[in-house]
Design brief:
With 134 residues, this protein is an alpha/beta fold. The chain contains two helices and eight strands; from the N terminus they run βββββαββαβ. The protein has one domain.
Length: 134
């Protein structure tokens, strides 16, 4: 666990020191995924600036695998209703394995999942696809 100030009401870090070590496996969460139809790209985001900063600090320490957890309801894109978007969570490009776990593949999220998989290199796993064996 890195050093930081923990908010006792939410159990989230308010601030965190950059860890002086590297981690082979890093597990993080995201608050949502923004899909840009014009470029057919998707980006993960946090709802809070401090959470994005802390998540990005963890991602910078990853050397082998990043696992991101994101509920399928947060992969929803509704035409004409726009999307919420907070501060970006940086793409972990320096790791060979990137896994995104979600509970199910939402009908509305197929385009977003395809962009995350094809353009960002995430392997996507749901209850239906099961746990990766590699």
């Amino acid at each position: 666990m890195p050093e930081g100030i923990l908010k006792t009401k939410t159990f989230r870090y308010a601030s965190m020191q950059a860890p002086p070590w590297h981690a082979p496996i890093v597990v993080v969460g995201a608050d949502g995924c923004y899909y840009n139809r014009a470029t057919d790209t998707a980006r993960l985001y946090a709802n809070d600036g401090a959470v994005a900063v802390n998540t990005n600090l963890f991602l910078e320490t990853a050397t082998d695998t990043v696992i991101c957890c994101l509920a399928s309801t947060k992969l929803k894109f509704e035409e004409g209703k726009g999307q919420n978007c907070g501060p970006w969570i940086n793409e972990p490009d320096n790791v060979p394995r990137k896994y995104l776990f979600t509970d199910t593949e939402p009908r509305e999220g197929k385009t977003i999942i395809k962009a995350l998989r094809d353009k960002n290199g995430w392997k996507i796993f749901t209850q239906e696809t099961g746990i990766p064996k590699d």
